[in-house]
TrEMBL record:
Keyword Signal applies: yes
InterPro entries found in the cross-reference section: Iontro_rcpt_C, Solute-binding_3/MltF_N
UniProt-listed PANTHER family: AMINO-ACID-BINDING PROTEIN YXEM-RELATED, MEMBRANE-BOUND LYTIC MUREIN TRANSGLYCOSYLASE F
Domain Solute-binding protein family 3/N-terminal: 55-284
Region Disordered, annotated ranges: 25-51
Gene Ontology CC, one term: membrane
Keywords of the record: Signal
GO molecular function: ligand-gated monoatomic ion channel activity
One Pfam assignment: SBP_bac_3
Record has Metal-binding as a keyword: no
Name by which UniProt lists this protein: Amino acid ABC transporter substrate-binding protein, PAAT family
Organism: Geodermatophilus saharensis
Length: 291
């Protein structure tokens, strides 16, 4: 999700303690340079330099959408990203009561500067451009992008990218969805850019755009639960080099980056991430591929 100059903006605004923090190969590839991250020392609540001693402060956006967070209440541990956050916390040795949540807008979290959280979980794609301003953990999920519309629209029935290029298409600002729309679909007219997916969804429902681009799990949720006569046109085979990988976002050179990455890696290796994906994202069935 690389940030770019935008032509048009509509609408208003996972109990195991890790013994060491030496980064593993996968974490090194996915996380930011982490020059200021701890390379030695125990990854335990007593040793981790968190915002508040003994507490892990986790951020997400507001509202936070299903299937990532249920009922816009990350504290309940329900939804894929809420469950992943608590699994990471447990892996680091934090009890549930030692986790506190705060809300930070998506675009604010990826900007340089101080941050009121230890890590943020909000479908942040790991990109080289963002690594200039923030750190990332190793990836906890890989996702495709998808095109959605409403029944009877000009995009309904499209089977290829060529079928979409002459239509009015939109996506949320500063997201991989917008990058894929611009670079992969490459519409003939400038894409319509929205502040939030809620704004994009409303414009779609009102016929202001023919289709919008969102990640695939979000596409299934929106079309089944939020849109009248919602339709998934298809998923995009090319969603960026290596796929679109989500990572936990931390401050640039955070002393927590290596420990958080090792926690994510441990959850991947012991099958926890796969189990959570099955639990919360199992409705994400195969969608037709647009090429």
């Amino acid at each position: 999700m690389r940030r770019r100059p935008l032509p048009l903006v509509l609408a208003a605004a996972t109990t195991l303690a890790l013994a060491a923090c030496a980064p593993q190969e996968e974490s090194t590839d996915a996380a930011s340079g982490s020059g200021g991250s701890a390379a030695t020392g125990a990854c335990t609540p007593d040793e981790l330099d968190t915002l508040e001693p003994g507490t892990l402060t986790v951020a997400t956006d507001q509202p936070a959408y299903e299937p990532w967070v249920v009922d816009d209440t990350p504290e309940n541990g329900e939804g894929f990203e809420s469950a992943v956050a608590y699994a990471v916390a447990e892996q680091l040795g934090y009890a549930e009561d030692d986790v506190t949540w705060t809300r930070v807008p998506f675009t604010a979290a990826i900007q340089p500067g101080p941050r009121p959280f230890d890590f943020d979980i909000n479908q942040f794609s790991i990109t080289e451009e963002r690594r200039q301003a923030v750190d990332f953990s190793s990836p906890y999920y890989t996702v495709s992008q998808a095109v959605i519309t409403t029944a009877g629209s000009a995009a309904d029935g499209a089977t290829s990218l060529d079928d979409l290029r002459g239509l009015r298409l939109g996506a949320q600002v500063a997201t991989t969805s917008l990058d894929v729309l611009t670079e992969v679909i490459a519409p003939e007219t400038e894409p319509v850019v929205f502040n939030t997916n809620d704004d994009a969804k409303l414009a779609l429902q009102n016929g202001q755009v023919d289709a919008i681009v969102v990640d695939l799990p979000t596409a299934f949720y929106i079309t089944s639960a939020e849109l009248d006569n919602g339709v998934i046109v298809g998923q995009l085979e090319d969603s960026g080099e290596g796929g679109d990988q989500f990572g936990l976002l931390l401050a640039k050179d955070s002393p927590l980056t290596d420990c958080v990455s090792q926690a994510v890696d441990a959850l991947r290796e012991d099958g926890t991430l796969a189990d959570l994906e099955q639990q919360w994202l199992s409705d994400v069935a195969d969608a037709p591929v647009l090429s």
